[in-house]
Design brief:
Length: 191
Amino acid sequence: MKRVIVIILTSLIAINGYSQTYLGFKGAFSISSLTTGDAGSRPGFNVGAVLFTPVSESWYFNPNILFSLNGAKSAENYDPDFSSHFYSIETPILLSYRIGDEQVSFGFDMGVFARYGLFGGYWTDTAEGRIKPDIFDSHKRFDVGPQLGMSVIVNKIYMGCGVQYGLIKPWENRRGKYLNYNLSFGYLFEL
């Protein structure tokens, strides 16, 4: 699978030339929660690499590979209290429609993401007291879904915002799916 991704990325770069292809690093502040009234939001982050390579005059292929922190906690006044966090590898695969020039461009980003949980923590209150089971005993490691966002690139400085909606119900015993908002910053290098 890794070989296939490298071949696809290399082919796209070779087809389109190196003059408008950018490779960069970005970091994001994120807020994640479950799409249910009994869950509150939790801050997180993601950091990693991003690629912008043109597929036409205005469209760019924009894959990312990110290390991220997501989670949820109980809403105020919800009983029992719970809190979860998990670190994961995330791969948004986006198409970016960009307007502007090489100095300043605005983009509308759309695509899909996949996330795989690596490790994390979880606690919940029960009648016997607070317990801390392994998060992945009852939480699914994998999630996938649509991602939408907007971005601006000013002199190779990247700023963007986006939203992700997970399609897989993560908890066996809780309602809701993950909804993540992020605000990203980064720097791009021309290849």
